[in-house]
Amino acid sequence: MFAYDRRPQIGWMTRAFVTAAILVVAATLLTLAFLPRPLTPDVTGQLWIADQLRHGARLYLDISEPNPPLWFWLAMPIDAIADTVRARAADVLIVAIGCVTMLSLATCARLGSVRRLLLAYAAAILIIMPMRDLGQREQLTLILSLPYIFLAAMRREGMALPLWLALLVGVQAALGFALKHYFVAVPVLLELWLAVSLRQRWRPLRIETLTLAAGAVAYAAAVHVLTPEFLTASVPATMLAYPAASTPELRFMIRPAQPIWALVILGIIGLRRSSGRALPSLSVAFLLAAAGFATAWLIQLKGWPYHSIPTTGCLALALVAFAFGGAGDRGLRLGVLPLAGLILPLLLFAIPTQWRPDARTDIAPAFVGLGEGDVVAVIAREGWTSWPGLANRGLRFAGQGGSLWILQAVDGNEAGARDPRIAELGRQMVRKTAHTFRCLPPRRVVFYPGRVPDIVTSAADNPRRYFLQGADFARVMDHYRQVPTTGLFDAFEQVRPLAPPVRGHCPRRP
C-alpha cells in the first residue's frame, strides 16, 4: 500500500534552503520595519476576535461571525505571545508568518533536490507578493500547501521519501486547506492527476492523503463540540442571506492579478514552444493547484484582491519550475513574456490597498476625546471602517462584530425576492445590537456612512435610519446626543446611563 524510503535523502540545511531562508528573514525584518499598521481590516478583526476568545468570549454567541473558527483559533496563540512579550499582535503575526514560511520552504527542500533560484523565488512569492494583504487565509494556505504540491509532483515521478516527512507535509496541508472549504478543489485535482497518470501504480491511501482526511474529520469534530452555534446559527444565516448581499459583476472580479494570470500562462506556452520541452511534473502540479485555487476564487465571486493570491503564486511557480526546475538544469532562455510573467506577480505588493482611509473615510476624528478603556460602537456595513480605527487605541468595542454585512443582504432582499426571513434577520440584528449596548453601554456610537438624508432608505447606505426603525434601539439612542465630527460619520455621545437588560444573557467581554 505504501512505498517509502525510510533513509534520510537530503539534509535540511541545503544551499537552496539557506538562500531562501536569508530572503525570508530579510523580508520579515523589512515588513516589521516598514509595513503600515494596522494590518488589513480582516486580519485586525481576526486578532481582536482571538483576544476576545482568550478572555472568555464565545464565538457565534457573543461574537457574530460568518467565517469558520479555525482562522480565529490559530490567532489565539499569536495574541497570547503578544501579551506575554508585550508586543503588538500584528508584529507577532508577521514574525509567525515568517517562521511558517521557513518551515514550508525547509520541507520543500527536504523533499528533493531543489534549485536555489526556484526556492528563493518561492520565498518571494510567499512573503513579498501578498504583503499588502499579509495574514489573509489565502496567503497562509499558499504557504502551507506548497510542500503538498511538491510532494504530488514527486509521487507522479515515483520518488520515495521517509514516512515522517509525508506526515509533516500532510499536517501543513491539512491546516492550509481547512482555512476555506473551497480549497478542497486543490488536493482533489492533484489526486485526479495522479490517478490518471499513474493508473495501476496509483495508491490513494498514502500518509499525506490519510493525514488530510484525518485533519478534516478532527476539524469537523472540533467545530461540532466547541462551536456548535457555527452550524446551528451562523451557517443557516449565511446561506440564507449571503446570496442577497452579493451582487457580483465582472468588473469587480477583474483586478490587476487577472491580466498577470493570462500573461504567465502565455509565457509558459511560449516557453514550451521555443524550448520543445514537455512540462515537468512540478510545473503541472502547480498549474493544477492554480486551477483549484482559481475555482475557489470563482466560487466566492467577490473579486477581493487577496482571493487571487494562491492562484497568482501557483502560476508564477509553475513558470519558474519550467524555466529553472531541475537541480542540474542551467535553465531556459527567457523571452519578454516569460520574464514579465516572473517579475509582475512580485510587484503586486506595491499596488495601493483599497481600504486605507482618506479624509472622508478616516474614523479617527470620531474617537477624539476618548481615552484608553472607553467603550465605543461602530455601526457600518464593512469591517474596513471599524477595525483600522479601533486598533492600538486601547478602546473597548461594544458590538458583536466589525462588519454588519447583513445590511447589504437587507438591501438586496428588498430589491429582489423580498424573503421575510432575511428581513427578520435584519430586525434581529438591530435588536441584538440594542441588547448588547445595554449590557456594555458605549460611550460613543458611530455610524458609517453618516451625514445621509432620510430620503435615502438603503440600510447599508443609511444605517442610522435603518437601526432607528427598531423600537428597542431607538429607546437606547434616547440616551445619546449627536456630537460634531469630520468625514462621512455620525457620532453620538452618551449623556444618560442605560439600564441593564431585564432578560437575555449579556455577551462576555474582557
Quick recap:
The protein has 510 residues and is mainly alpha-helical. The protein has helices spanning 15-34, 41-54, 70-85, 89-111, 116-127, 137-156, 163-178, 185-198, 207-226, 228-245, 250-253, 257-275, 281-300, 309-324, 336-343, 383-390, 406-415, 420-439, 463-468, 471-477, and strands spanning 375-380, 396-397, 444-448, 480-483, 490-494.
> What coarse outline follows from CA principal-axis ratios?
elongated
Strand content: under 5%
What is the end-to-end distance?
A: 52 Å
Secondary structure tally: strands: 5
Helix-strand category: mainly alpha
**Strand count, sense and closure of the main sheet?**
5 strands, mixed
Order of helices and strands: HHHHHHHHHHHHHHHEHEHHEHHEE
The average pLDDT value, as a whole number, equals: 90
Which strand order do you get reading across the main beta sheet?
2-1-3-5-4
- The share of residues in helices is 55-70%
How would the blueprint of this fold be written?
Elements: H1 15-34, H2 41-54, H3 70-85, H4 89-111, H5 116-127, H6 137-156, H7 163-178, H8 185-198, H9 207-226, H10 228-245, H11 250-253, H12 257-275, H13 281-300, H14 309-324, H15 336-343, E1 375-380, H16 383-390, E2 396-397, H17 406-415, H18 420-439, E3 444-448, H19 463-468, H20 471-477, E4 480-483, E5 490-494
Helix pairs in contact: 1-4, 1-5, 2-3, 2-16, 3-4, 4-5, 4-6, 4-7, 5-14, 6-7, 6-8, 6-13, 6-14, 7-9, 8-13, 9-10, 10-17, 12-14, 12-15, 13-14, 17-18, 18-20
Please describe what this structure looks like.
The protein is mainly alpha-helical and 510 residues long. It is built from 20 helices and five strands. Strands 2-1-3-5-4 form a five-stranded mixed β-sheet, covered by helices on one side. α2 crosses α16 (383-390), α6 runs parallel beside α14 (309-324) and α10 (228-245) packs across α17 (406-415).
